[in-house]
Amino acid sequence: MNCAEAEIMLHALLDGELDAGHARDVEAHIADCPDCAEKLAAFRAMRAAMAGADLKQKAPAALRARIEAALPAAPASGRASAAVLPLRPSRRSFFSGFGAGAVASGALAASLMLTVFHNDQDQAVANDVVSAHIRSLQANHLMDVETSDQHTVKPWFDGKVDVAPPVIDLTAQGFTLLGGRLDYIDGEPVASVVYRRRKHIINLFVAQHLGAAHAAMTARSVQGYNVRHWSGQGLEFWAVSDLDGEELGEFAGKIAASLRPGAAS
Known about the structure:
The protein has helices at 3-14, 20-32, 34-52, 63-70, 79-84, 91-136, 150-156, 245-258, and strands at residues 145-146, 176-185, 188-197, 200-207, 218-222, 225-232, 235-241. By secondary structure, it is α+β, with helices and mostly antiparallel strands. Among the domains are: 3-47, no CATH class; 142-258, 2-Layer Sandwich (Phosphorylase Kinase, domain 1). It has a 7-stranded antiparallel sheet with strand order 1-2-3-4-7-6-5. Helix 1 runs antiparallel to helix 6 (91-136) and helix 2 packs across helix 3 (34-52).
């Protein structure tokens, strides 16, 4: 293993995403390479610094007191003054209105936070699957079971992952089934079904929980690779390739269509 190969895997090693064989290879390289060992140490130090930093800020406790002090005094009692002067908000009514507004604002903020969280979560998974795709392109990392027979690939995953990934043979439609591989995303084992379109490799990652569920297919580009993500049959699918985005979308569409109820196997 050279430094370029090891550097790709340093973050995966730090996050516990490598299988035992790959982790052993990277650790052996680091033991003999001071430059890569220094990079790994810097990554670990940065991670520890971020985890220990106090990044939360609280509003000062005196804020409510300052707001109350800034409010006008309660109006003098008397029917005449009440009839002539417009009503001014009391502190209680002010904070009641403020509380109602806060509830509405909180609900809106929660929905926005949920959207942002899902977007961030999906982006993190997209980065991980692209990293796994890049690792797979290195020598002898692409497949654990190499065959175009879908009835051989599918049972190979039994006992290795929590779910049985669907293996669809699309060779007649221009996407050749090459085999399958056990991979790790965010430290969890996932199935990767491998296809080829001309000279382009496609990794189809399949897991029960791999990002936020999306009934509609989403598209993005990460590090120059095209990514398609969708949900179906209780599973999450991530297709990654340097294939043209339109062709990768065609591939993903054919996989999704083949899994719909009533579709021919």
